[in-house]
Fold this sequence. Notes:
This protein is an alpha+beta fold. It contains 7 helices and 13 strands. The chain is globular and about 65 Å long.
Amino acid sequence: MELSLDIHLADGYKSNAQRARRLTEGWFLKNMFCPACSANCLFQTSGNTKVVDFFCPECEAQYQLKSKAGTLGKKIHDAAYEPMIERIQANRSPHFAFLNYLQGTWRVQNLFIIPGYFFVPSVIERCRPLSPNARRSGWVGCNILAYKLPRDAFVPVIERERVLPKEIVRQQWKKFSWFASQAAQKREWTTDILRCLNQIEKARFELRDLYAFKHELSKQHPQNRNIEAKIRQQLQILRDKGILRFTGRGAYEMVKE
């Protein structure tokens, strides 16, 4: 996989934003494979396609590319709020590819992909409507709250200019592919529990470690009146899916890959 961006793709473009978009989209089209299946290439959508930038010709997986010089940050600006929420609720969210590059050398530094099934309403922030004086007055965008996603949501393809083998990327992708068949509300609960497990930062933990997040989880899920039972339910799901192993007496451990 070539990490240098083809600067000639930006010839004729004066805007820095347009130049960066041309370079990164051109690189992604040439180099990226589909992590969701065995396809070794992706196709680019037409310019007026909303939300989706690329798609797989074999499994029809859809991808949106976000790129930036330097780190992407905890909040990532996205497109319109309502269409994004509608797609999430309907289990049709595209997969997101996040690419960062060095502007001086125009080399890709990192690339990771978040499968669409990890996107739930709580990780999408509604922006304020544009002012009456704006060209698109009243338009409402959104931000992706990357810090609310668990570590397992980030599937690395390139880390610090180190390209990961395709089979490793696809193996990580498949680990949570069962999410795709779950309704948004169920995915939201499991995503929250995974994020709590990340904060515990222990390979082995006890049920009481998760009970410590009861207050936080009750604020995120005010309609639920039995948080502890819900925590136990989610741990059972993660156990059944091979993510956790129950070791007895309220103790669990993360399954090593």
